[in-house]
Amino acid sequence: MFRNYITIGLRNLVKNKVYTFINISGLAIGLACFILIALYIRDETGYDTGYANADNIYRINTHVDVNGVSNNYPTAHYPAAFDMVQDYPEAVNATTLYRMFYLSNVLPKVRYGEAQFEESKFFLADSSFFTVFDFDFKYGNAAKAFENTNSVVLTEAMSKKYFGDTNPLGKLLQLQDTVALKVTGVLQPRKGKSHLEFDFLAHAKPLLNQLIGFRVDNAYVGLWYYSYVVLQPGSSPAALEAKLPAFVKKYYPPRYTENNAKLTVQNIKDIHLHSNFSTGDMSVNGNIQYVYTLGSIAVLVLIIACINFMNLSIARFSNRGKEVGVRKVMGAERQNLIFQFLGESILIAMMSGLVSLALVRLAMPLFNRLASVQLDPMAIIAPQNLLAIVVIVLFTGLLAGLYPSLVMAAFHPVKVLKGLHKAANQKMSLRKVLVIAQFTVSLILLIGTLVISQQLSFMRSKDMGFDKDQVMMIPVGGTTMARDFPAFKNKLKQLEAVASVTHVSHNLGQETLPYLPMIVEGKEDEQMLPIMSVGYDFVETFNIDVVSGRFFDQGHNSDSTLAFVINESAARALNWTDPIGRKMSYGVGGSPNSQVIGVVKDFNFDPLRNKVGPLVMYFSPVQGNVAVKVKPGSYQQTIASVEKAWGEQITDKPFSFYFLEEGLAETYAAEENLANVFKYFCGLAIFVASLGLFALASFSAERRMKEIGVRKVLGASEAGLVALLYKEFLVLILISFVIASPLAYYFFDQWLNEFAYRINIGVVPYLIAVVFITFIALITVGYQSISAARRNPVKVLRSE
């Protein structure tokens, strides 16, 4: 019997080739989208799950209100983690990590023999590090790796980079040409992903004290340390957090306690997707909102495909009423019919599943580029993933085929043999409800695509308060530019294509500025303020207005050591109506004679996700970037001239640059990626919906052929008949639009609220979406409607 069901199912699929193609391709696309995004979600949620004690390891984060603005940091003061272990029994172990030259563009130099490189992932760690985080060692072991100071552990990649395939244990690496570090371990590549991204781990407490300038053991100065505590199994992190306000009050200096400083603990498995910090995170984090968004898209596209499948099954099975009647007359039981029709649905789903795996494999490189991830193509055939895919495919086939099977099995033989089962034409059948749901989802995705595109266009074109056009940004970290800048600037100024040259410590408009303690006139306690160092000609290069006082001037010697320039927001935050001449100095080691010499108009020094806040600028030797304003013209020739001047001045680092406008665009790469993903998946959803609509229109026209024949005999025109057939679908589109509009507004207004500067959702996205969907439906339904309207009524009525 089972073989008979398979044979009948295959015959029906071959008999209805167009239906079969549409159903398999539509469901395959939906499954492929779902599987692809499911693999992405699994990858994003898998960070830091491989550590043996991951459930009990928590990072300490710091939150400080600065002039009414909440600032969040993934770091803490050095002693905090160890004092927690001392004060609270639920905290049993702790460790810290410090990135060399934290919050600086300078990169540490590591040398072995003649090989010397700048390394961006060089960290100093405590002796307890390998008791908190478990790593497998290729050479050496965790117990002896940090037995002595001035020892260093390398990743396998760094070991090969400096020492080839030899065992490097006991060999010496030179750090900054001043400190010798003994190699005591090489780590095996870690399975799975982690927020801990380092190439070197050095145990060098004396070096840390030397870098900071004081002993860090008991100093609550500087939020510079990634700090971790290990809790007792079963301990409540919420209970520990409830004790931390008293901990802050006990240990922290006034500039923190009086600015609502707060400590929180975050499980390491939550770091990648649940972090939103002002600055300084160790690695590039994901975004849980994007995981939710893409997950929703995956479910919506699969729902559209399943609705498509179900709708077509209802339409196709309803045309097999006589077959059901004959089978029932011949003695077929209801469960036999259910099994047959459900089996056919599952068979189609399995075929679609095989096609979807091929589509996933083909689409994965494109998806990796769009979502900026590195999904492994072999992940598809991993046993646990393959099992999950099989379950999803079978469940989809079962879900999509269950209702049509139950309906068909319930038909009465007498009625179906007389064709009476087709007579019911209720105003709102399940088929119409499913079409409405399909169009509703498509409209939500289309409106979302348009809203996201509008927001990105707005951010790209928004006036940030400074001139971003034709500005070359040249990174100078790790070079002798601080010494050689005057000569380099003079060479560039001699070039006819160069309008202005300056320098700035910050990647302007692309990253959040660090907050540092300042002593300001009129305030008893230190103020945490964002600080940026700049050079002469900064306001000329970026065309920033000075609203009072003046900017740094080479003609005033004290400007290089005793002067600050603030923005309008800083003057307001400090309640200074007359800021010129007000005293201001660094909290540690600053001169009491420093003063404000000027106020500039507010500009967006941080990304547009943040509102413009207070800003303090000071003059310093070159840090971060040299900024070169070039005149319109032959950019290639200008770049070559600047590179030549660089090569004549800087010999220890190759020339590199980017245009500021391009850098600002890359700041919103995550949003750009989301927009692109939306576009592709929205297009697929509409394509799948159109396939289903094409088939449904065909079945609808086929079932109303007698009515069309009678109307033509009575004088109805072809245009009127096309309009009659199209009217049914147009009403469904309008109902879908009414449902989709408020839902789309709610979801995407929430998304826009993440931006400090955002668009207001107007009527344009809605109009474009409904017109586009209507046009697609017109094309899809129109072909079938015209074909039906042009048929000879004599032949149609004779066949009936």
Automatic annotation (TrEMBL):
<dbReference type="Pfam" id="PF12704">
    <property type="entry name" value="MacB_PCD"/>
</dbReference>
<keyword id="KW-1003">Cell membrane</keyword>
<feature type="domain" description="MacB-like periplasmic core">
    <location>
        <begin position="442"/>
        <end position="639"/>
    </location>
</feature>
<feature type="transmembrane region" description="Helical">
    <location>
        <begin position="21"/>
        <end position="41"/>
    </location>
</feature>
<protein>
    <submittedName>
        <fullName>ABC transporter permease</fullName>
    </submittedName>
</protein>
<feature type="transmembrane region" description="Helical">
    <location>
        <begin position="386"/>
        <end position="412"/>
    </location>
</feature>
<dbReference type="InterPro" id="IPR003838">
    <property type="entry name" value="ABC3_permease_C"/>
</dbReference>
<feature type="transmembrane region" description="Helical">
    <location>
        <begin position="290"/>
        <end position="312"/>
    </location>
</feature>
<feature type="transmembrane region" description="Helical">
    <location>
        <begin position="677"/>
        <end position="699"/>
    </location>
</feature>
<keyword id="KW-1133">Transmembrane helix</keyword>
<dbReference type="InterPro" id="IPR025857">
    <property type="entry name" value="MacB_PCD"/>
</dbReference>
<feature type="transmembrane region" description="Helical">
    <location>
        <begin position="729"/>
        <end position="748"/>
    </location>
</feature>
<feature type="transmembrane region" description="Helical">
    <location>
        <begin position="337"/>
        <end position="360"/>
    </location>
</feature>
<feature type="transmembrane region" description="Helical">
    <location>
        <begin position="433"/>
        <end position="452"/>
    </location>
</feature>
<dbReference type="Pfam" id="PF02687">
    <property type="entry name" value="FtsX"/>
</dbReference>
<feature type="domain" description="ABC3 transporter permease C-terminal">
    <location>
        <begin position="296"/>
        <end position="409"/>
    </location>
</feature>
<feature type="domain" description="ABC3 transporter permease C-terminal">
    <location>
        <begin position="682"/>
        <end position="793"/>
    </location>
</feature>
<keyword id="KW-0472">Membrane</keyword>
<feature type="domain" description="MacB-like periplasmic core">
    <location>
        <begin position="20"/>
        <end position="245"/>
    </location>
</feature>
<keyword id="KW-0812">Transmembrane</keyword>
<feature type="transmembrane region" description="Helical">
    <location>
        <begin position="763"/>
        <end position="783"/>
    </location>
</feature>
<dbReference type="InterPro" id="IPR050250">
    <property type="entry name" value="Macrolide_Exporter_MacB"/>
</dbReference>
